[in-house]
Amino acid sequence: MRGFLASSIGVTCAAALALPLTLPAAAAPVPATAPATAMAPATATASAQAAQPTGGARSAPPAAAPDLPGSTESLPLAPATRDRTLGAAPEQGLTRADVHRFSLVGVTWTDPDTELRGRVQVRTRATGTGEWSGWQDVDTHNEDHGADPGTAERDSGHVHGSTAPLWVGDSDGVDVRVRADPAATRAVGNRQSPLPAGLHLELVDPGAEPPAAGARPTARRAALPLAATELPALSREATEREAVALYGRAQPYIGPRPRIVTRSGWGADEKLREKGFVYTKKVKAAFVHHTASGNNYSCSQAPSVIRGIYRYHVRSSGWRDIGYNFLVDKCGTIYEGRAGGVAKPVMGAHTLGFNTDSMGIAVLGTFGTAKPSSAAVNAIARLAAWKLGLYGVNPRGKTYLKSGGGNLYRKGKNVRLNVISGHRDGFATECPGRQLYGKLGSARSTSARFQGR
């Protein structure tokens, strides 16, 4: 088996897959000191390396590794001047022209179970030109993402409420305003603020790109095992042989494995996330999301956008790792998301109430009115055909998932869903946007064809 893997995809690629010979128990955390037989080989990629606990989301992050820079600046919002004499303030904001360079913004608050009922807008000053952008809306409905109620990740004490992150490009000045919905203001009167407590503006610098392949490594990186930056695409026959080598058998219908950029490939700083991994029994369904981070990015910037979302999910929102299992950019490139092995049933934090036995695929962008690219929709289909195929699941089929609790289904209810569903099918939300949601029927059919059905 080892000889086959080394000859077909290389030892480092096999380590990135991190496939066990037997699937782990449901929601079982894998400790950082797990024996080698339960984890990837010693040449594991960054996706299988342990990391330090994140600690409180409000505490200053430890210094990033010299070759993986990046930072998060968290600034408390204040009541607008005109509201200071009116009792509880229906508007808070901040204007700063002396901040560290950043490219992604979001707003967080103390209680993750409190909804921000209002509007969040930002404008930013571009680094270099000094020009200010127009006001941009930030998606406030991010509470529908996250770990399921009652899980260790949700109950860690580090989780905060948060908006979706917005990609704004290289900036060094910011102006933000958070205005409460008039209905929320009327509901509380002057007794208390209609806005959540502890509002902070999060300014995220995703850091520079990781060194290109073949570049001279730094002293620190040279001491680490070589990590695969991507898993190359395989033919259907090679995919089936790989499944037999790893599992002892292959499912009758499995799509060819697509090319996947690993965490090492997009430059994940593995010190940010928590140690260990959490798995469920299988992957029965795929939930499709949009990141709601805007469409103003180039495909070459996609790794930076992902590093920004990763840092925002961990440092600002207080999650154990990036919430999605996979991400897809507008050019159709697929990226590994939450660590633990791309072929394993890694528990994510993508669809509140339905993270067990599912995977989350997020397309970078916002698709309420903008149409997703055909390349992105095709990538969803290819990824689902392979990953669902590993578990014998038909992308055109239906499945049952048990709700962990949410605003559509009570905890414990068995819900019949499409195998490829939109986020809104499990939670009352606009995600993945009307335009992307409308493409899911096509993605199901295409994915089934990739499986040979």
Brief rundown of the structure:
With 453 residues, this protein is α+β, with helices and mostly antiparallel strands. It has helices at residues 2-8, 11-17, 182-188, 219-222, 236-247, 263-266, 302-316, 374-390, 434-437, 440-450, and strands at 28-30, 71-76, 78-79, 91-96, 102-109, 118-126, 136-138, 161-162, 166-180, 200-205, 230-231, 260-261, 277-279, 285-290, 326-328, 334-336, 358-363, 398-402, 414-418, 420-422. Strand 15 and strand 16 (334-336) form a beta hairpin.
Write structural notes for this entry.
With 453 residues, the chain is of the alpha+beta class. 19% of the residues lie in helices and 22% in strands. The chain contains ten helices and 20 strands. The strands form four sheets. Strands 2, 3, 4, 5, 6, 7, 8, 9 and 10 form a nine-stranded antiparallel sheet that branches. α8 (374-390) packs across α10 (440-450). The chain starts with a helix and ends with a helix.
Q: How many helices does DSSP assign?
A: 10
Radius of gyration: 22 Å
Spans of at least 5 consecutive residues with low confidence = 1-12, 19-67, 83-87, 217-225
Estimate percent helicity: 10-25%
Q: How is the secondary structure organized here?
A:
Blueprint: H1 2-8, H2 11-17, E1 28-30, E2 71-76, E3 78-79, E4 91-96, E5 102-109, E6 118-126, E7 136-138, E8 161-162, E9 166-180, H3 182-188, E10 200-205, H4 219-222, E11 230-231, H5 236-247, E12 260-261, H6 263-266, E13 277-279, E14 285-290, H7 302-316, E15 326-328, E16 334-336, E17 358-363, H8 374-390, E18 398-402, E19 414-418, E20 420-422, H9 434-437, H10 440-450
Parallel strand pairs: 12-16, 14-17, 14-20, 15-17
Antiparallel strand pairs: 1-13, 2-10, 3-4, 4-9, 5-8, 5-9, 5-10, 6-7, 6-9, 11-12, 15-16, 18-19
Helix pairs in contact: 8-10
